């Protein structure tokens, strides 16, 4: 291969090794890893938590070997750094799957939860769901009036899934019950019945 191709392969191999090492560091102690990345300049010239968080979220999205639990715990923490990291991480998903329209809401949620399983304290899950709602709406979810409507529908969908697959729930929710629960959730109007 030409020397430029060999250099590109070497650079890609080095980058892959750096990301694997950074992921191992993050998995061991997320806060210490982020602090070390900031101190070393790995995040670039960032002066505040919002800028550092955006850089951290972008970096975490690139990493293949980040463990789901520390990822969720870090991204869902309260505070400006984690909030910016969460928005940057979720904002990197292609909820259009390369097309011009977003994926159906359930498929977009599956895509997110495959990378970031949201299990734990309700406030932490809600932060993840709000970041998802903003990113999904920005991807062109035009059947929704705003990101708040996406948030309500996404949370309702998660509850419906829990209802359907939890053996302890005896009276399962019907399609009509689900539609009724979301009545007026689209900034005062109903969501399209076909979507529900």
- Kindly state the percentage of residues in helix: 55-70%
Strand content: under 5%
* Secondary structure tally, helices: 9
Tell me about the largest β-sheet: none
Q: How many strand elements?
A: 0
Structural class: mainly alpha
Mean pLDDT: 89
Question: Outline, from the CA principal axes?
Answer: elongated
The first-to-last residue Cα distance is 54 Å
Would you give an account of this structure?
The chain is elongated, with a radius of gyration of 19 Å. By secondary structure, the chain is mostly helical. Helix 7 (122-138) crosses helix 8. It starts with a helix and ends in a 15-residue tail after the last helix. The protein has helices spanning 3-28, 30-40, 49-62, 68-75, 80-91, 105-115, 122-138, 147-165, 175-181.
């Amino acid at each position: 291969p030409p020397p430029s191709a060999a250099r590109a392969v070497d650079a890609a191999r080095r980058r892959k090794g750096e990301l694997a090492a950074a992921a191992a560091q993050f998995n061991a102690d997320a806060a210490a890893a982020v602090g070390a990345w900031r101190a070393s300049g790995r995040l670039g010239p960032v002066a505040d938590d919002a800028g550092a968080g955006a850089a951290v979220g972008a970096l975490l999205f690139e990493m293949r070997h980040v463990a789901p639990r520390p990822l969720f715990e870090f991204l869902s923490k309260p505070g400006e750094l984690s909030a910016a990291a969460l928005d940057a991480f979720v904002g990197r998903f292609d909820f259009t799957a390369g097309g011009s329209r977003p994926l159906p809401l359930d498929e977009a949620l599956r895509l997110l939860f495959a990378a970031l399983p949201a299990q734990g304290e309700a406030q932490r899950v809600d932060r993840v769901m709000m970041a998802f709602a903003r990113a999904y709406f920005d991807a062109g979810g035009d059947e929704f009036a705003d990101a708040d409507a996406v948030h309500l529908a996404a949370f309702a969908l998660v509850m419906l899934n829990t209802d359907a697959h939890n053996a302890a729930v005896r009276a399962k929710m019907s399609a009509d019950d689900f539609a009724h629960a979301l009545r007026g959730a689209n900034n005062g109007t109903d969501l399209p019945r076909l979507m529900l």
